[in-house]
Specification:
InterPro entries: Asp_de-COase-like_dom_sf (IPR009010), MopB_CT_YdeP (IPR037951), MoPterin_dinucl-bd_dom (IPR006657), Mopterin_OxRdtase (IPR006656), Mopterin_OxRdtse_a_bac (IPR010046), Prok_molybdopt-oxidoreductase (IPR050123), YdeP_MopB (IPR041953). By secondary structure, the chain is of the alpha/beta class. It has 32 helices and 31 strands. A hairpin with a 7-residue loop joins strand 28 and strand 29. 59% of the residues are buried. Bound molecules: ligand MGD (2 copies) and molybdenum atom. Molybdenum atom (MO) binds next to loops.
Length: 762
């Protein structure tokens, strides 16, 4: 019997309560342990939770937050426990699943329901013209991939996606396969995530990564947290922010929403966190209008420069600016002309707010600015991040203890994947080294990023799509356009642990190849293998699986990539794919000769706690830019015009999801239970729009020159977000974001600022 599939976006039991004003504490710990034990059994749960983020254990896959030098016995958070439980479940997709269900019958399945079906344990193939997947042998599956790739007129007619959970060794092998095959079409989740950060930081400081170390949080006088919800997405960061507070530092949050974790934190690892009142987090909370950060940063920098003009020689770090930067004069001139009235419109803040933030910045000797998707998924994201750097540079806040620019990465190894060559445009120096090591000429033309891959699929220029993890069609913007494009492909291949939308919306022919997860022991001919990852602060460490594989047929990602490579390039290809699969030390030896910073990889990764990659700006104030200096830049302010009767909608994560993976229908901190079909709107806006809490509305987005996009039947929640702004959940709301709406310079979908109107439905 076919189990009924729930209809999309219809949650009859939805409950709405009050938002919380504190995060974590005893309740979260108890809940996460209860659910892990209930799902996995006590012994398996204990084995996993005691191994996570420990030396000799595995790296938590829930985010890229770094580990402190002194680890607790329990070095995980509530959301890490959910991610582990989700992967390490013992339920599996039944052998009969696909015989009983056509793809057509699964078109309305939600991500939540798909994820509940358990782990994928055998390779399956959907032949062209068929509406069902059917079991297929590994060898046959690889042959299908190889045959399709060899048949293409050009290697550029294929694209190879990577999601950021992929480990360093796998990522390196995968990009090697793709480049040996002949293309740089390596789109990845980073294109939708921190691409704006990499683009901006590379331009202005020469390194696209964070300039701080973990311990800097404990040394900072001021941490400004912008566009980020650490209580949900990086919960262990709250422990680092608590260190800032305990050492006398201050915290300022800049966010349209009052996020619980930024208001108060009860540390579950400390007795006072379990029973006491916890730590007050943000000393100031600026509820900025969506997309207003660039204006805010310029206004603060302007005030810093005015303070210097009023008391010359006393405000700026002149020695630093002289020795290490270029561009001060142009920046000073440009900001002098900044129109405060425009800043007030753009930010929705008051003059006092701007003055106070400037005063806080000036009172601090060591300042860290952290950010995530609230800044990167904006049209002017790249320029906004350059303004973060401008503000930091003015007082020498890069390359000294307790200070720096700190993008907080998303996926647990998204940063490492980039280091390993997963990018559609790696620098020439990387391609040269790769070609030398493996005696071939890598392709040089830039490849396609995530958005451009979809354009190319839509136009028939990309015909084969291979995904190493992730849920491309579920995660990218403009869902309906994306799905149409994917359906036109000849072959789509998903290497996955669990079911998601990208298995249901496929090319004419499709494969699902089941992979081992990070929690599982990876046994190869040379014995159990470990992999490695790089966290948000450039620390690289090993990850060892802790529990037996979920099934006999499931293969490691390395083995799957090697299998595809051999089948595509032929058994007599000079690259020894099998040797690298037998023993991952062989892959690491190759990496040590290709990637700077990894020269003694196999030794360094075996030292307790791993090693930290070199970083010029952080370590020695050296700037690998063309001028050899850090650049203060002039960026033209542009604020979001919101026509009357419209709102600026952001799409964001609930507390119980990991990207497109939905663990439960609750969003505890925001007071939502048993449903996700909601839109959060400020009460003043509701009144202005003639709507009320509890109304049902279609959320309709408008993009110039295109027809309207619609997310039907959302329940309105009156919520204390900034005025003029609204919020709805990713990935359901992706349908509203035009594929044409991307950040200037990084091509990242503008997921945090969509102009919408709300249409009341009966
Ligand atoms: N549990 C869990 N952990 C995760 C993830 C997950 O889904 N679940 N995802 C992982 C990934 S891949 C990533 S990239 C990170 C994402 O981590 P976050 O960036 O924290 O994730 P979002 O939910 O997108 O939250 C964006 C935040 O920015 C704010 N914001 C929106 N627009 C603006 C703006 O214009 N200005 C400012 N200042 N703020 C704004 C929102 O109100 C929200 O608080 O988390 C990683 N960790
Ligand atoms: N509207 C909107 N869109 C967004 C965002 C947003 O804020 N708003 N955020 C963007 C961001 S920041 C990101 S990073 C992307 C995320 O885009 P993706 O990385 O593509 O999506 P995920 O949901 O993280 O992928 C989940 C799937 O990965 C597979 N998986 C999990 N673990 C493993 C593993 O160990 N191995 C393998 N092979 N597969 C595994 C499972 O099958 C699971 O279903 O989405 C982006 N899209
Ligand atoms: Mo991300």
């Amino acid at each position: 019997m076919t189990r009924p599939v729930p209809e999309r976006a219809d949650y009859p039991d939805l409950e709405v309560g009050h938002p919380k004003r504190e995060a974590v504490g005893a309740e979260a710990v108890v809940r996460s342990l209860e659910s892990t034990v209930a799902n996995l059994g006590a012994a398996r749960a204990a084995r996993l939770l005691l191994a996570v983020n420990q030396n000799g254990g595995f790296d938590c896959m829930s985010c890229a937050w770094p580990d402190p030098a002194h680890r607790h016995t329990a070095e995980f958070c509530e959301n890490g426990a959910k991610a582990i439980t989700w992967e390490a479940t013992r339920s599996t997709v039944a052998r009969t699943f696909w015989a009983e269900r056509s793809l057509t019958s699964l078109q309305d399945a939600t991500e939540y329901w798909l994820g509940q079906q358990g782990r994928l344990v055998e390779p399956v193939h959907k032949p062209a013209g068929s509406d069902h997947y059917q079991p297929v042998s590994w060898e046959r599956a690889f042959e299908i991939v190889g045959a399709h790739l060899r048949e293409l007129d050009s290697p550029d007619e294929a694209a190879f996606y990577t999601s950021g959970r992929t480990a360093n060794e796998t990522a390196f092998l995968y990009q090697l396969f793709v480049r040996a095959y002949g293309t740089n079409n390596l789109p990845d989740c980073s294109n939708m995530c921190h691409e704006s950060t990499g683009t901006a930081l590379n331009d202005v400081i020469g390194v696209g990564k964070s300039t701080i170390a973990y311990d800097d949080f404990g040394r900072a006088d001021l941490v400004i947290v912008m566009g980020q919800n650490p209580g949900t997405n990086h919960p262990r960061m709250l422990t680092a922010l608590e260190e800032t507070k305990r050492n006398g530092g201050r915290i300022i949050a800049v966010n349209p929403l009052p996020e619980a974790g930024l208001i108060r934190y009860k540390n579950p690892q400390k007795a006072r966190g379990l029973i006491g009142r916890g730590t007050e987090m943000a000393d100031r909370y600026l509820q900025i209008r969506s997309g207003g950060d660039m204006a805010l940063l310029q206004a603060v920098s302007k005030r810093v420069l005015e303070a210097e003009a009023a008391a010359p020689g006393t405000v700026l770090d002149h020695v630093f600016l002289r020795e290490h930067t270029v561009g001060l004069e142009a920046l000073t001139e440009h900001l002098a002309a900044l129109d405060d009235a425009e800043v007030l419109v753009a930010t929705g803040l008051t003059v006092d707010d701007l003055d106070d933030l400037a005063a806080e910045y000036l009172a601090a000797d060591r300042v860290i600015i952290t950010w995530a998707m609230g800044l990167t998924q904006q049209r002017k994201a790249v320029d906004t991040i350059k303004e973060v750097v401008n503000l930091l540079l003015l007082r020498g806040n890069i390359g000294k203890p307790g200070a720096g620019a700190s993008p907080i990465r998303g996926h647990s190894n998204v940063q490492g994947d980039r280091t390993m060559g997963i990018s559609e445009r790696m620098p020439e120096s990387f391609l040269d080294a790769l070609g030398r090591e493996f005696a071939f000429e890598p392709p040089r033309a830039h490849g396609l990023d995530a958005v451009d891959t979809l354009h190319a699929m839509r136009d028939g220029r990309v015909k084969v799509f291979v995904a190493l993890g992730g849920n491309f069609v579920g995660a990218i913007s403009d869902t309906l356009a994306a799905e149409d494009a994917v359906r036109g492909a000849r072959l789509t291949v998903q290497v996955s642990t669990k079911l998601n939308r990208s298995h249901i919306v496929t090319g004419q022919e499709a494969l699902i190849l089941p992979a081992l997860g990070r929690t599982e022991v990876d046994l190869q001919q040379a014995g159990p293998q470990f992999v490695s990852v790089e966290d948000s602060v450039c620390a690289v460490h090993a990850s060892h699986g802790a529990v037996p594989p979920i099934g006999d047929e499931v293969r490691s990602e390395v083995a799957i990539v090697a299998g595809m490579a051999r089948a595509t390039l032929g058994d007599d290809h000079p690259i020894d794919w099998d040797g690298m699969t037998r023993d991952y030390d062989v892959i690491r030896d190759h990496i040590s000769r290709v990637v700077p910073g990894f020269e003694h990889f196999n030794d360094d990764v075996r030292t307790q706690g791993g090693f930290v990659l070199p970083n010029g700006p952080r370590d020695s104030r050296t700037w690998p830019t063309p001028s050899g200096r850090a650049h203060l830049t002039v960026n033209e302010l542009e604020h979001i015009e919101c026509p009357p009767g419209r709102l600026i909608l952001q799409t964001l994560r609930s507390h119980d999801q990991f990207n497109t993976t939905v663990y439960s229908l609750n969003d505890r901190y925001r007071g939502v239970r048993k449903g996700r079909d909601v839109v959060f709107v400020n009460p003043d806006d509701l009144e202005r729009l003639g709507l009320a809490d509890g109304d049902r509305v279609d959320v309709v987005s408008e993009w110039p020159g295109e027809s309207d996009r619609r997310l039907p039947g959302q329940r309105v929640i009156a919520y204390p977000t900034a005025r003029g702004c609204a919020a709805a959940y990713f990935p359901e709301a992706n349908v509203l974001v035009s594929l044409a709406s991307t950040a200037i310079g990084s091509n990242t979908p503008v997921s945090k600022a969509v102009i919408v109107r709300l249409e009341k439905v009966a």
